[in-house]
Specification:
The chain is an alpha+beta fold. It contains 3 helices and 6 strands. Helix content is 16%, strand content 32%.
Length: 200
């Protein structure tokens, strides 16, 4: 990712790490927050592992499009490695009634967006974007799997009453894990309430 081209290429989705309905993200807009359906997959970017993030607009608070810098900061503080963030606007939220997918990147503190789908044939990236959506994108948008999936870095939650077996395993760490800013998808608890205050 360079200053001139801040967008990483669209990756091949890997392990489905997280699905969180009603994820609350901070926003500098008047509402002060927004909510979305958050889904995260592990992916490979070059020779390292990163995260593919998909946020679907659910029409509460500020939209992801108006909160790009804040969403990026929250995710960047929670995850290491390359970050590919996509915003999904469902058909019922799209003024054209078709739905769309845009990619977010932040460079020098400023949010940048590019259209992934749909794009006209005149768009230089149309063929690559259209192929990626056909092979991976539409399947990701339709993801409706059981959110109770194990994390690769568990245990991810210190909440004593969380019903998840992933939270109940022995050897819980006494430090925030990489998902502390996102929260446990099972009970919503976060390892470090002070650091996560901006996401409440």
């Amino acid at each position: 990712m360079s200053a001139a081209t801040p967008f990483l290429p669209l990756p091949v989705p890997g392990v489905h790490r997280l699905r969180r309905e009603g994820w609350r993200y901070p926003s500098r807009c008047a509402a002060g927050y927004g909510r979305g359906l958050l889904r995260i997959w592990q992916c490979e970017v070059g020779r390292t592992y990163g995260n593919l993030v998909l946020i679907s607009d659910v029409d509460e608070g500020a939209t992801p499009a108006n909160s790009g810098e804040d969403i990026w900061a929250a995710l960047r503080s929670a995850f290491v490695g390359p970050l590919i963030v996509l915003e999904h606007v469902p058909p019922e939220r799209d003024w054209q009634g078709k739905g769309c997918v845009d990619q977010l990147a932040v460079a020098h503190g400023r949010a940048h967006w590019r259209h992934i789908w749909p794009t006209p044939q005149s768009n230089p990236g149309h063929e690559g974007f259209d192929t990626w959506m056909a092979v991976y994108g539409h399947e990701l948008l339709a993801t409706d799997t059981d959110p109770r999936i194990p994390f690769l870095f568990g245990p991810h939650c210190l909440h004593a009453f969380c019903p998840s077996a992933a939270c109940g395993i022995e050897g819980r760490v006494a430090r925030p894990c990489r998902f502390s800013r996102v929260g446990c998808p099972h009970c919503g608890a976060r390892d470090d309430p002070d650091r996560a205050a901006g996401l409440r």
